[in-house]
Amino acid sequence: MTQSELLIATRNEGKIAELREAFATLPVALRFLNEFKNISEVAEVGETYEENATLKAMSYARQTGITALADDSGLEVAALRGGPGVLSARFGGDHLTDTERTRTLLSSLDQSGSTSRIARFVCCMVVYGWPSSQQAELSTAKVLAVTQGVCEGAIAHDPTGTDGFGFDPIFIPTGYAVSFAALDQAIKRRISHRARAAEKMRQQLDLFLRPNLTAGRSAS
Question: Catalytic annotation on 110?
């Protein structure tokens, strides 16, 4: 079987580590954005996780000529009417640090007047590109697979842990007593929203990887 290539369309080192492990058993050569020069960033202007993931996967696949996997995820807090949701990465302003964004969310939750701490993380993954080496023209590229993963939990009153990113320090998954950022990372990589979306995607990709996911087109 010819080994295929799959571009993991993110620069987030945390996501890269999780997806590298999730797809370790697939007969596919993983590629990453930092391997390519002059890659234009993609604006996440979609109204849903799937729209944003599709925008990113489509753009990076077309720029590199390699079938691309992109994801979009968010934290949905019941007391904030499901927010910040698709706006999680920009909640409170585009230039805030993860720490500042987390503090802003905790403040918003306190100001909501609600006693509910119920929340969940949602992740949508999209693979866009070419299903076989015989289909290498831009016009034949398409969405090959879409998956979603959800992790239910609650918002802590204070951040704890240092191993996560984003809102991980304040999210306590159901069934555990510590935040994602304080949880054993082997457990997190098994139960997280991203892990669940990735496992479903791994199964979908396996269909395309027998015998070949894509050769794409030659990048210019």
Answer: no
Of the candidates 152, 133, 161, the one whose C-alpha atom is nearest the C-alpha of residue 191 is 152
* Three-state SS at 9: coil
> pLDDT tens for residues 22-44?
999 888 899 999 999 989 999 88
Catalytic residue among 71, 72, 158, 163: 72
Strands 83-84 and 4-8: what pairing? unpaired
* pTM confidence score: 0.88
* Angstrom distance (rounded) from CA 42 to CA 45: 9
In whole angstroms, give the CA distance from residue 58 to residue 197. Answer: 18
Question: For tokens 């027998």, what's the residue?
Answer: 210
Among residues 64, 66, 67, 68, the alpha carbon closest in space to that of 220 is found at 64
DSSP per residue, 45-100:
--SSHHHHHHHHHHHHHHHHSS-EEEEEEEEEEGGGTTEEGGGGGGTT-TT--HHH
